[in-house]
Specification:
With 226 residues, the protein is of the alpha/beta class. Helices cover 31% and strands 19% of the residues. Strand 1, helix 1 and strand 2 form a beta-alpha-beta unit. Helix 3 crosses helix 5.
Length: 226
């Protein structure tokens, strides 16, 4: 079984982007995951292929029309129970736990918003799960969708050369990752911490845990509170 991602977007040329290279690209070539795009504009019915209109109640910008977007979603999700996600700054913050839940499934359908957003009626009517990648605004949902897929694809079975490499990273155990070092032993007068070259695996594990807790306390105390 391979992981399948379908992207609803006004800019299908933005995909697969960087996911077509490196480990993700090789995994795609091997058939471990796939990606297809749906052009939302193809589901407009007027001669101008209009996909947006002015916001009800007034205000700046434009809003994606519910009828057009709903037809695109229905086309992409016919007889399909994959989660339907909407990349949105007002969505629930993306976590590594949610990434793993999605990676354990058959795939995702991702709607990439544009303009001022998506008509609330299609969000409710098509059961879209709003997902945020951070407290900032992008020009559209496409970069966010690429980030979400990057996080998912890298932990699919067999994508990384060593699956263990994904188990000791930031957020996997509730902490930020400990500092990393490699040769040369001395660089610009700074040495690799002696414990890391001691061969004492118990001492190394203890040091790594202590450093992870220290960094987390300094930079992300909210993680410790959780």
């Amino acid at each position: 079984m391979s992981f399948s991602a379908t992207i609803l977007t006004l800019y299908p040329e933005m995909f697969p982007g960087h996911l077509g290279t490196s480990l993700a690209g090789k995994a795609m070539e091997r058939g471990q995951w796939s990606l297809d795009t749906v052009q939302i504009r193809d589901f407009a019915t007027d001669k101008h292929r209009t996909v947006d209109d002015t916001p009800a109640g007034g205000g700046a910008g434009m809003v994606l029309k519910p009828d057009v977007l709903a037809r695109a979603i229905d086309h992409a999700s016919k007889n399909d129970d994959r989660p339907r996600l909407l990349m949105s700054p007002r969505g629930k913050p993306l976590t590594q736990r949610r990434v793993r839940e999605l990676a354990d499934g058959d795939g995702v359908i991702i709607v990439c918003g544009r303009f001022e957003g998506v008509d609330q009626r299609v969000i409710d009517g098509r059961d879209l799960e709003e997902v945020s990648i951070g407290d900032y605004i992008l020009s559209g949902g496409e970069p966010a969708a690429l980030i979400l897929l990057d996080a998912i694809v890298r932990i699919l079975p067999g994508v990384m050369g060593n699956d263990l490499s994904g188990q000791n990273e930031s957020f996997e155990g509730g902490l930020l990752e400990h500092p990393q070092y490699t040769r040369p032993q001395v660089w610009e007068g700074h040495e690799i911490p002696a414990v890391l070259t001691s061969g004492n695996h118990g001492a190394i594990a203890k040091w790594q845990r202590q450093e992870a807790e220290k960094l987390t306390k300094e930079r992300r105390p909210d993680l410790l509170e959780k």
